[in-house]
Design goal:
This is Peptide ABC transporter substrate-binding protein. It is found in: Cell membrane. With 559 residues, the chain is of the alpha+beta class. It has 2 domains: 270 residues, D-Maltodextrin-Binding Protein, domain 2; 222 residues, Roll (Dipeptide-binding Protein, domain 3). The protein contains 17 helices and 26 strands. A 7-stranded mixed beta sheet has the order 8-9-10-1-11-22-12, with helices on both faces. The protein is globular, with a radius of gyration of 23 Å.
């Protein structure tokens, strides 16, 4: 193993620990013509359905309320999904993923995959400049990829996304070859993600670890200012003329500015858009979605995110959850359908698989498979010796059957409420559930391994996302594999899926992987997260990318 590979492996283990913390958290096909993923589960937005004006209105400021604050505006370093809302206005990527899963040109005009599938050669646009005037070229691309690999950058999610990149060769000013350690089926698609956005080398070198507060890209908007916990402002890039295929407007944005207002409290955020203090607000609570649809001055835009749905991972390093029958008892003892219907009032889809319906290879046959069966759950626990006492709680060898359930705060998407309901449901089959809500997930989960169940999700565009969560080579301490799976059969499927270049074969591989994960009760899928935005009807043109993040290139405000 050469030095770069050792560096890569070390970096990957660190990265995976952090990528799993990225909620809604943090891929794809190989070459453009090979990408045949099914359409992302993108619900047509009212803006898309609405009749487009003959000419979009120009000018004005859009105020957009965010539910939480970004951590940094450095795409390579940021660890929270909310940052991507802003990152997409500032940075471009080499390629873009369309809603049908295909990969299209963006800053790269064309590319070629080597016969051994271990390098991509990209032709680059010649007319792009970063906001600070730095020219975009092969040297800039090389700088970006090497920066992501550099341990001093502390790139987490971005480093995981470009795996197995090892080096790059500048062919000429506008041609670059990216070299991979092994073939990768999702490498090209991952380059479309905002977290692999291309930053200005000049600015990144100038600001160092403060670049995330002084971001410079080549996107449709330039960074203006950031008032902590209050707002982030960006303004139109008048020189922009290289928009991607998933927006209509390829040139300078219609809006003069966007003000991202940070309003964590749900009622305040909702009230702000209802009173027109802001023109759009994200993450609308389920209980308000139906009523909002009836408001004359507002429109509701909703899109299912892609990746790994919100899932309860069962830790097999802990007894008795290392036993299949114990895990199956949890599957049959937790009434997921009631949880989703009660908390989300028909506005969220129930999840049935380790991946969301919009991903390549999603196995629809799993839907409506495992359902509540209290008798079966009790029978399974009886079979492995956990007997109910007079208090109705189970014990074995003098020890109560207790389950430690960890989730993070705050109560995002009512996840804490899910924990409370699971606590009540499992009591019916004699299991005591201790719920721990903690912000220190990195320490509690990834360092101390202190959980029997941990709830998590990830935004991604390729089923290879399963690798970081289920492959036995990914260790929990400083790594991923949340359920602690040590399954050679699953490893083999994930290894094949990661490098297979034929999408038809990949679909079959990942269907087998999904069935294995469910049949062996490694997890309990809960819901597919819909990103929801309430906006004034004066706002038109708001679209979403393949992952479910908002795009502002086409947005305009009518009078």
């Amino acid at each position: 193993m050469n030095k770069k590979m050792r560096l890569w492996n070390k970096l990957t283990l660190i990265s995976l620990a952090l990528i799993l913390v990225l909620t809604a958290c943090a891929s794809n096909t190989k070459k453009e013509e090979a990408s045949k993923a099914p359409p992302a589960s993108v619900a047509p937005s009212p803006s898309e359905k609405a009749e487009e004006p003959e000419e979009a209105a120009k000018g004005g400021e859009l105020t957009y309320a965010l539910a939480t604050s970004p951590d940094l505006l450095d795409p390579h370093v940021s660890r929270v999904a909310v940052s991507v809302r802003v990152l997409r206005t500032i940075y471009d990527s080499l390629v873009v993923q369309d809603a049908d899963g295909s990969i299209k040109p963006w800053l790269a005009t064309e590319w070629e995959l080597a016969p051994d599938s271990k390098s991509y050669t990209f032709k680059l646009r010649k007319d792009v400049k970063f906001h600070d005037g730095t020219p975009f070229n092969a040297e800039a691309v090389k700088y970006n990829f090497d920066r992501i690999l550099d341990p001093t950058t502390k790139a987490a999610n971005a480093a995981a996304l470009i795996r197995p990149y090892v080096s790059s060769d500048i062919i000429d000013e506008f041609t670059i070859k990216l070299n991979l350690a092994t073939p990768s089926a999702d490498f090209l698609g991952n380059l479309s993600q905002a977290l692999v956005g291309i930053v200005s080398p000049t600015a990144a070198k100038k600001f160092g670890d403060q670049f995330g507060r002084n971001p410079v890209g080549s996107g449709p908007f330039k960074f203006v200012k950031w008032d902590d916990n209050a707002q982030i402002n960006v303004e139109r890039n008048p020189d922009y003329n290289w928009g991607p295929s998933n927006v209509d407007n390829k040139s300078a944005a219609n809006l003069d500015t966007i003000s991202f207002k940070i309003i964590p409290e749900e009622a305040t955020r909702l009230g702000s858009v209802q009173s027109n203090q802001v023109q759009a607000a994200e993450s609308i609570p389920p209980q308000n979605i139906l009523s909002l649809k009836k408001e004359d001055k507002l429109q509701l835009l909703q899109v299912n995110t892609n990746g790994l749905p919100y899932t309860l991972f069962i830790n097999q390093r802990k007894k008795p959850w290392n036993e299949l029958k114990a895990r199956q008892a949890l599957q049959y003892g937790i009434d997921v359908t009631t949880i989703v219907q009660t908390l989300y009032l028909g506005t969220y889809e129930q999840a049935w698989s380790p991946i969301s319906p919009g991903l390549l290879g999603y196995d629809k046959s799993l839907e409506n498979g495992i359902k509540l069966d209290i008798d079966k759950a009790n029978s399974l626990l009886d079979e492995i010796g956990w007997v109910k006492g007079k208090d109705g709680l189970r014990e074995k060898d003098g020890k109560k059957l207790t389950l430690h359930y960890v989730d993070s705060s705050p109560n995002r998407e009512k996840r804490n409420d899910i924990a409370a309901i699971v606590q009540q449901q499992l009591k019916k089959i004699g299991i005591t559930v201790e719920v721990e809500i903690t912000k220190d997930v990195l320490n509690s989960v990834f360092v101390k391994d202190g959980y029997d169940i941990f709830g998590n999700s990830q935004t991604n565009s390729d089923p290879n996302a399963l690798f970081a969560f289920y492959h036995s080579l990914v260790k929990i301490v400083g790594g991923g594999n949340i359920p602690g799976v040590l399954d050679p059969e699953l490893d083999d499927l994930l290894n094949k899926g990661a490098v297979e270049q034929d999408n038809t074969k990949r679909v079959e591989i990942y269907k087998q992987a999904q069935q294995l994960i469910i049949n062996k009760a490694y997890i309990i899928p809960i819901y597919v997260f819909p990103y929801t935005v309430a906006a004034s009807k004066t706002v038109t043109g708001l679209k979403f990318d393949a992952l479910g993040y908002p795009l502002f290139n086409d947005v305009s405000i009518t009078k």
